[in-house]
Design a protein that fits this description.
By secondary structure, the protein is α/β, with parallel strands linked by helices. The protein contains 9 helices and 5 strands.
Length: 224
């Protein structure tokens, strides 16, 4: 009887291993800057990585994200980063989060509009022109962070809102999902542990909150 029990357990384990091996995982390309690469947090706490892990718990399986992002990148620098990368496209899913460094450096918002339109067009192309598989994440407000102490926080908030309005308008025209996480980024007075050790970037816990805002996009999409 004991041998039969072990035999059955063995079959179950083999079945689980085979199922996991045969699970079809879809590809994911994440484009951005310090927020996408997860400055000041561990790799497993980056929001694209947390997103993949969270979706797996809902039986939606993605590969480890291909991330093209670097701290400090503006829209034109991200464009150069993409151009200099080896991409095995089309990707099943593509995300774009860019613009904070354009605002931080005082770059022209009309220039940003033009460059963002180009980046979004490329993101759509990398998805195989499946707009329903592309989503854009809003720019968080770094002005609420300890790093911004002594700066004009109200002015920063206004400029971030203006850049996000441009992003929203372009997404609306292109019929691309716009996910607004900016209100979450402004909630650090309620969640002080949402700030990374550098006093500027979100912590892994804040990124987890972003992921909860993003997950419905996948759940409401035609996943095939």
């Amino acid at each position: 009887m004991k041998k039969n029990r072990f035999y059955i357990y063995g079959l179950i384990l083999i079945c689980f291993a085979a199922c996991d091996k045969d699970t079809i995982r879809q590809s994911y390309l994440a484009l951005g800057d310090s927020y996408t690469i997860g400055e000041s947090v561990a790799e497993n706490l980056r929001w694209p990585v947390q997103l993949v892990d969270s979706l797996a718990q809902k039986n939606l399986f993605l590969e480890t994200p291909k991330i093209i992002a670097q701290t400090g990148w503006t829209t034109d620098e991200l464009k150069n980063g993409i151009d200099n990368s080896s991409l095995n496209y089309p990707y099943d899913w593509v995300s774009l989060l860019i613009g904070v460094n354009n605002q931080y450096r005082g770059r022209n918002i009309d220039e940003f509009r033009e460059q963002f339109e180009i980046l979004l067009s490329e993101a759509i192309a990398y998805s195989g022109n499946r707009k329903e598989r592309v989503f854009v994440v809003s720019i968080p407000d770094w002005g609420v962070m300890p790093f911004a102490e002594g700066r004009d926080r109200a002015q920063i908030a206004t400029e971030i809102d203006n850049f996000n309005q441009v992003i929203y308008e372009i997404c609306a025209i292109q019929e691309i999902e716009f996910i607004d996480i900016t209100p979450l980024s402004r909630a650090i007075d309620i969640h002080p542990d949402w700030v990374a050790k550098d006093g500027l970037h979100p912590s892994g816990k804040q990124y987890s909150a972003w992921v909860q805002e993003i997950i419905p996009f996948f759940l409401n999409s035609k996943y095939e």
